[in-house]
Write a structure and sequence with these properties.
The protein is α+β, with helices and mostly antiparallel strands and 138 residues long. The protein has two helices and six strands; from the N terminus they run H-E-E-E-E-H-E-E. It has a four-stranded mixed beta sheet with strand order 1-6-5-2, with no helix packed on it. Strands 3-4 form a two-stranded antiparallel ribbon.
Length: 138
């Protein structure tokens, strides 16, 4: 969880502020994932901080939904080109790649459970970039 908060803060994803009058903040929750080795032992544990985007209302909290997903035909075409031209394909995993989508709307989220800043209990985060779960996240 510390790694997730560190990545969010390092990417300048949010800023702590008071909630403006007439605005609502969206809650957040931690989602945990466990990956196992073939023998059944735990390989690693992962925690994602997720915005409760299902509470957002269309036309009020967001105006457009965007989900970049590659079509299978596009992937097949890329594989065919790389095979024909003897190109190399590399796979990579960027832990915080999702956190790069800049937001146009004003979105406020509650401070995450376990990471509430001391003396600033009533404050919220204004998002500068997307987080998992937002309707307008890339």
């Amino acid at each position: 969880m510390d790694d997730e908060i560190y990545a969010i803060e390092k990417n300048d994803t949010w800023e702590l502020t008071s909630l403006p009058e007439g605005k609502k903040s969206i809650g957040m929750k931690w989602v945990y994932k466990t990956k196992y080795k073939p023998n059944g032992d735990i390989d690693w544990l992962k925690a994602h901080l997720v915005v409760k985007g299902y509470k957002q209302k269309p036309g009020i909290d967001y105006f457009e939904v965007f989900a970049p997903v590659a079509r299978i035909n596009t992937i097949h075409m890329i594989f065919a080109l790389t095979t024909q031209r003897y190109w190399k394909i590399h796979q990579m995993d960027v832990k915080s790649a999702f956190l790069n989508g800049v937001l146009e709307e004003e979105v406020y989220v509650d401070q995450p459970e376990g990471y509430v800043k001391k003396g600033q209990d009533g404050f919220v985060y204004k998002l500068k970039k997307a987080l998992y779960g937002l309707k307008q996240a890339p």
